[in-house]
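example protein:
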Amino acid sequence: MIAANLIPSHDVALWLVRHIDNMLDHCGLTRYPAVEQVIYLIIIVAVALAMGLIVRSVVGWIVRKIVRMRNSDMGQQLLHDKIVEKCTHFIPPLVLMGLVPFAFDSASRLLHIIDKVVLIYAIIALAYGVAAVLKFIFVQVNERRNKRNLPVQGILNVVLGILWIVVAIIVVSVIVDKSPGALLAGLTAFAAALMLIFKDSILGFVAGIQMSENDMLHVGDWICVPGTQADGNVEDVSLSTVKIRNFDNTLVMVPPYELVSKGFQNYRAMQDTGSRRIMFNIIINTDSVTRATGEMATALAAKYPDVKNFLDRASKTQDGWICDNGNYVVNGTTETNMGLFRAYATSYLKSNPHMSQDQMIMVNQKPPTADGYVLQIYCFANTAQWVAFEGIYSAILEHLTTTLPDFGLTMHSSTNLEVASPAKAQ
């Protein structure tokens, strides 16, 4: 009888074999050990699957009860992602590993093969459960603890990649009956090929670490990548791809190492400060710049109070110009009509409620060109929102350009009106 050769210490296995023997005696098949082994194997597979289903149902019922009692978002996410069900896949191979050896002789070749299959099944099931738990943990960390919107998705991908690489090495070592260490030693000869195959993943992993350590990129940042069509908000950062949604709702995928190696422009600091720079040049015809007369100064002072305040202060100086580092700097002179316009434009910007007074406000004259004198307007709006910014910028541009004729100045047709950063939606 095959039951005599089985290990009698395992009560469940011994009980199963005894009942199988009794059943076979009734069928007249007692002298066929192969039939007994097949029936035993079928029964323990069914038992293993049933135990897995029972454990899954019981644990799932308990978890659902606890979630309903506490009514937490984490519990709902736990049920939604089916974490418990994924972890219980390890139960059937565990039962099989305990019961399969009792169906075969210890020297059986078939037992050796089945042991390998069950062990591989157990390793993969365990890794599947661990991966599910890791994903759940990273999601919770990203939603609850990641206040800076760091790209944790890339870190998760790296961890999962390492996990499955380790699983693959262990599975191969089980198949070839070698230790994982010996297998790794043999793989060193293929290191160059592996690095070539996983080049993008390796570069993405290194780039992800650099971006995280240097706080270069967050999910939700507005970035612009030179040389590509990427100019919008970052939606996702993974091991191999940074997904950017442009402001026309098109998606652009850029490898992380491209951002680190070639550089990119991040407008997060502008958004954090709540201000946005306005910078444009007005080219003034040379012939329209003249020396300021008393009549001109009096007429402008009567029309513009800011010019009158400037003239009152300038008259107290010996050279007739003000350009200091005080809290209310007015940059201009009384020598020319352009000097008076610079003083007026500076005062206008400083008194404008839509300007950020904590940032630099300056109206300065650049070296003249063949087209004429270059007057640069440099200031910051007190908002980073696209629509509001464009309204402020347009109002400043309209006011200053339409005020030029009152100062006797004319604008050259090739005037370069340039905002420091392209106007994009926020």
